[in-house]
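Quick entry between incubations.
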Amino acid sequence: NAGVTQTPKFRILKIGQSMTLQCTQDMNHNYMYWYRQDPGMGLKLIYYSVGAGITDKGEVPNGYNVSRSTTEDFPLRLELAAPSQTSVYFCASSSGQGIETQYFGPGTRLLVL
Amino acid sequence: DQQVKQNSPSLSVQEGRISILNCDYTNSMFDYFLWYKKYPAEGPTFLISISSIKDKNEDGRFTVFLNKSAKHLSLHIVPSQPGDSAVYFCGGGSNYKLTFGKGTLLTVNP
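Done. Structure below.
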């Protein structure tokens, strides 16, 4: 049981490039989330999904897109990378029952130059 | 508008003593609160939670206290161990979404 996995661990992008951050969970969780964490700041919600085919914006969605075609996968797409998107990105999932304990992946560190 | 505030960026305690991490919130709609621990270069790890209808929850060395009238919660770690050194995030939850504070760096000195 791997939990939540994320790839890549680290990536350098040039301004204007695009990339997809991958997230997979094997806990059969309905709910999945993408956060970003900037230095000295808490985690800010980018997008979330309550099930396959259903996604919604969080607090800081601009510059990102998501899709959820399966229960397991929740990729995050950056279309035109900007220096402001330099951050650490965390994917999380939860069961959608009771107190919503979210389980986090190890993170993807992204540097946009 | 910061709905969850952790006003102490850092805290240093001696091994074996109590660590108290504090968290204030403004959103009365939070149904539950969670504490996460984060080591460098790793994802946050769930530590302990509390429902908004409770005032205390205990799990081993970790206890969370909730004071709804003051919109304040605290995490107590007793006794503190060097392995507890990490950043601790407080989060308020409602409608299956969490809002996090900025975190407190706890350093436990041997």
